[in-house]
């Protein structure tokens, strides 16, 4: 064959390929249209063959070379490679190592020559499911390239999803109904947008002008102004407001106005919307006001106070106590920002705002809101007030349990930075403006109980860090009227939480951490008892029910801790806690609850024996079976504390009962140790000294308020210490 014949043959082959490509594109377009109307997906990708993959990889290499050397020979070579490909629809499915296809990479390189070559060779600019060239160009804001693509047929009315700046890779896999196959889910499978919306999202004003002014297209079903407000595109927002002022009060498909979208971005957005006639009292379908949205979604923490002050000055003060469909006020939303980390916000301007500055912003905003007659006692549908939520937030963050307390309005734990001084100040503001410290949640827990419960969630190794802060918060609650024994349920929850704290302390293995927690519990006990915790509460619930419901008596709960000790020296901790309770008025003589008599029998008779319920009886019952507990004298020291503090009649009644029950109690599964029997016999057979009896008489005369009244006695300090410390 001659050269001319070869050239003619090549031209015929190229012509036949172009005819086939054109026919294929037409059939593919019809196929996509039918799927759009009758099917579930508008775009069905074509799986590339190995030959196509190799060819596209060669084109990627040529494109990369063109970025350093502009050589027309490289374009010619690219055309030759494209002529070898019969299935152009499969080309967009081949991705490079960065996760982008050939046209996307050419857009990112701003290579119009390469794009023109692809277009002339038959690649469709409007075919694909992810980041089409025009959409991607609008996203990056390349105005000349936008005009180029529009000139060559790119459709500005197509709605397509986008994975950029991330690569087009699956974000999750969804199994089929029968689990034989898995469906890959991509970011671009959702949130499909027009090209202009991507330009608005990045605030590329000139691109937005090009698409709207020159194209004459206003996508009313997508609400560009709302989109600009949602993404904080201030320049685009101003332009769109100027050309379509009627959109300022329009409602989008979510039921939101532009103001409700814009409030999260700060004062200048809100101020511009207000100047252009926005309805400042607009609400979302869930009844949230602009204040709700500001406190929930604020993007720039430095804007929190100024934006709040501006909103309240526009008449929104009237809606300061408005609640959403969940019953939450704006104050509920603001409380969620207390102790939030300044570095957890999406805007870059927070780099100059340290944590202390942000904490101050939140506290000042809280003071501002309360100063505008905000009601801190509004209860939401879950029974939570703002004070409850403040403490629950702390508990949520400090909790070591990933499945701990969760609230739908709370961000992730990692977004918080605990500062107990800030927590204390926020609590003080709420309480000073009328927050009720004794209101219970829907679950029946008061703020004091919630705070005590949060102490259970604190890592014991961090107690030195939180010790003083927690005590200050607890003291603040009590000083503002929180009553530990306000109701039977509150009293029972307080006693139960103290018992759990003590139990947790006894189960620790590290001696240093255990000692730290021991002192913390002493301080908590002293504070609660000084603020009205009733250590002598009685109940009509009998012992069998007490085992499941828990006791309401502090001394009973403390002596029951004997079953949790790891070593005899742990009795010294229980001794210290019990001593504090007695110094603040705990009476060891009383029987906190009634007890049924038990059936006893001997060789000759069966009879009923009354069994008293004083705390010392519980203690003796707990320790009688364990010989090892008497090592070191710690158990005896605790028993001697009761021996020195109880009235004569009650004490010896308990000792005699203990001696008797050690022989006849049918419920005991073990024989009492010889050490226990010997100790009880010794105490029961020797009367106390006149000095000890006189001291008990002094206790009774002072109504056992040793801490409050001992220092008023006209006695020398050594004798006062003898009385106070029950030595």
TrEMBL record:
The keyword Membrane does not apply. Pfam families: Ank, Ank_2, SOCS_box. It comes from the Eukaryota. Keywords: ANK repeat, Repeat. Transmembrane segments: none annotated. One of its GO terms (biological process) is intracellular signal transduction. SMART domains: ANK (SM00248), SOCS_box (SM00969). CDD domains: SOCS_ASB_like (cd03716). Residues 685-727 form the SOCS box domain. ANK repeats lie at residues 129-161. This is SOCS box domain-containing protein. The lineage of its organism: Eukaryota, Metazoa, Spiralia, Lophotrochozoa, Annelida.
């Amino acid at each position: 064959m001659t050269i001319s014949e070869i050239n003619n043959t090549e031209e015929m082959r190229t012509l036949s390929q172009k005819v086939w490509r054109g026919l294929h594109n037409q059939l593919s377009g019809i196929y996509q249209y039918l799927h759009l109307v009758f099917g579930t997906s508008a775009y069905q990708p074509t799986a590339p063959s190995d030959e196509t993959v190799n060819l596209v990889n060669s084109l990627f290499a040529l494109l990369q070379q063109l970025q350093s050397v502009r050589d027309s020979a490289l374009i010619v070579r690219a055309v030759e490679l494209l002529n070898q490909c019969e299935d152009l629809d499969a080309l967009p499915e081949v991705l490079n190592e960065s996760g982008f296809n050939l046209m996307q990479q050419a857009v990112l390189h701003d290579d119009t020559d390469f794009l023109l070559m692809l277009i002339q060779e038959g690649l469709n600019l409007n075919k694909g499911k992810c980041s089409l060239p025009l959409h991607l160009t609008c996203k990056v804001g390349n105005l000349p390239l936008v005009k180029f693509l529009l000139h060559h047929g790119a459709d500005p009315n197509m709605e397509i999803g986008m994975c950029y700046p991330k690569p087009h890779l699956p974000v999750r896999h969804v199994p089929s109904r029968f689990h034989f196959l898995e469906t890959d889910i991509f970011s671009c499978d959702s949130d499909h947008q027009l090209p202009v919306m991507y330009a608005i999202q990045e605030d590329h004003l000139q691109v937005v002008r090009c698409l709207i002014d020159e194209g004459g297209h206003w996508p009313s079903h997508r609400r560009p102004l709302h989109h600009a407000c949602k993404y904080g595109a201030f320049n685009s927002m101003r332009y769109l407001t100027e050309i379509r002022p009627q959109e300022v009060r329009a409602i989008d498909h979510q039921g939101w106005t532009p103001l409700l979208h814009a409030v999260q971005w700060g004062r200048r957005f809100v101020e511009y919307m207000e100047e252009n006639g926005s309805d400042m009292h607009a609400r979302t379908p869930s009844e949230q006001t602009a204040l709700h949205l500001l406190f929930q979604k604020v993007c720039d923490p430095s804007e929190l106070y100024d934006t709040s002050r501006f909103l309240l000055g526009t008449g929104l003060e009237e809606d300061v106590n408005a609640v959403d469909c969940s019953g939450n006020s704006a104050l509920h939303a603001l409380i969620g920002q207390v102790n939030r980390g300044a570095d957890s916000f999406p805007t870059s301007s927070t780099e100059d705002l340290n944590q202390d500055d942000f904490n101050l912003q939140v506290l000042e905003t809280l003071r501002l809101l309360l100063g505008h007659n905000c009601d801190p006692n509004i209860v939401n549908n879950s029974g939570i007030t703002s004070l409850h939520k403040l403490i629950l937030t702390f508990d949520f963050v400090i909790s070591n349990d990933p499945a701990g307390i969760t609230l739908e309005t709370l961000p992730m734990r990692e977004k918080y930075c605990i500062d107990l001084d800030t927590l204390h100040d926020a609590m003080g503001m709420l309480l000073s403006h009328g927050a009720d410290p004794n209101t219970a949640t829907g679950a029946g827990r008061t703020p004091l109980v919630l705070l005590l419960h949060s102490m259970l969630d604190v890592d014991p190794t961090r107690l030195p860090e939180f010790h003083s802060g927690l005590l200050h918060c607890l003291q603040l609650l009590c000083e503002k009227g929180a009553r530990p024994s306000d109701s039977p349920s509150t009293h029972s929850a307080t006693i139960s939480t103290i018992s759990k704290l003590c139990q947790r302390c006894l189960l620790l293995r590290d001696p240093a951490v255990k000692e730290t927690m021991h002192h913390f519990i002493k301080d908590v006990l002293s504070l609660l008892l000084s603020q009205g915790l009733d250590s002598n509460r009685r109940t009509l619930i009998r012992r069998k029910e007490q085992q499941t419901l828990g006791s309401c008596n502090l001394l009973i709960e403390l002596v029951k801790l004997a079953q949790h000790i790891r070593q005899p020296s742990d009795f010294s901790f229980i001794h210290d806690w019990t001593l504090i309770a007695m110094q603040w008025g705990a009476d060891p003589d009383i029987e906190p609850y009634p007890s049924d008599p038990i059936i006893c029998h001997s060789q000759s008779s069966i009879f009923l024996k009354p069994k008293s319920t004083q705390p010392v009886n519980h203690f003796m019952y707990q320790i009688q079976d364990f010989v090892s507990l008497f090592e070191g004298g710690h158990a005896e020291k605790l028993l001697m504390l009761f021996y020195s503090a109880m009235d004569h009649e009650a004490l010896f009644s308990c000792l005699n009962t203990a001696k008797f029950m050690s022989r006849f109690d049918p419920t005991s599964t073990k024989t009492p140790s010889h050490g226990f029997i010997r100790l009880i016999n010794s105490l029961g057979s020797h009367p106390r000294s006149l000095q000890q009896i006189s001291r008990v008489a002094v206790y009774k005369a002072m109504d056992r308020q040793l801490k409050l009244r001992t220092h008023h006695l006209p006695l020398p300090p050594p004798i006062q210490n003898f009385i106070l410390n029950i030595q």
